[in-house]
UniProtKB/TrEMBL annotation:
GO cellular component assignments: RAVE complex; synaptic vesicle
Superkingdom: Eukaryota
Organismal lineage: Eukaryota, Metazoa, Chordata, Craniata, Vertebrata
Family: Belongs to the rogdi family.
Name used for this protein in its record: Protein rogdi homolog
Entries under InterPro entries matching the protein: RAVE2/Rogdi (IPR028241)
Organism: Myotis myotis (Greater mouse-eared bat)
Amino acid sequence: MATAMAPTAVERAVLEEEFRWLLHDEVHAVLRQLQDILKEASLRFTLPGSGMEGPAKQENFILGSSGTDQVKGVLTLQGDALSQADVNLKMPRNNQLLHFAFREDKQWKLQQKVSYVRPGTKPASVCAMCMHPARAGSQQLWGRSQIQDARNHVSQAIYLLNNRDESYQFRTGAEVLKLMDAVMLQLTRARNRLTTPATLTLPEIAASGLTRMFTPALPSDLLVNVYINLNKLCLTVYQLHTLQPNSTKNFRPAGGSVLHSPGAMFEWGAQRLEVSHVHKVESVIPWLNDALVFFTVSLQLCQQLKDKISVFSSYWSYRPF
């Protein structure tokens, strides 16, 4: 079997020259391209206090679904918060039409994950800009804004790239690989915050406080959840009924899920409840779709640069970088 021959001195000199050109010229060209793309991505996230002039603009999204007309509504998004909500719900049993809207003094930051925290304590790491509490009985809930977090990760990726400006000289391929890995980590986290909704339990949804944002107050047999999934703003309404103490059903509390199904059970206070109906409506957010495309293109550029750096290792018996 033929074996690969080691490069000659001339070939090695040519390869080393090509590698130096890659480090000194092409790497910076790719970094400039990444900076331009990520700045465009960052501009899509117009959040209050993000350096943009004036407050974030309000955008109205009409919610709908091809599978049901039980729920219709309009959500108003301002930055990473819902500033207004107008929801109509047709009750399945009697076709009664219920109408709910946000209280004028309330806004709701789009949250992906909430976690229980004991009263009087805070999570180990709390970002004052993107976390806020909502009380639920004797417990406290903390949630993080999906859009804020995604933008924070983009900003961190831009910061990493800015630290390696045109005047910086990369001396080894390992430096480039380390930088690309760090940038890709931030971009992957940004994308995941938008594409991977949290798996919440029904008690977490009930305790989130969103249900208490509406006027008139939602009936006790309704739960509402709002979240980002990919490029869509999603609203889910759960209708509940109480399981009687003498019920013959085997009570099994449901675990966490992005979307609970009818029949899911949970305990809330002294009651055992079961989901009877689930209604989900959604609307596309165009600028989130743009951001996701920018993330994908940037990740591809990072990987292509990593591949170019790594291919030189096949020409040496040792890693030349």
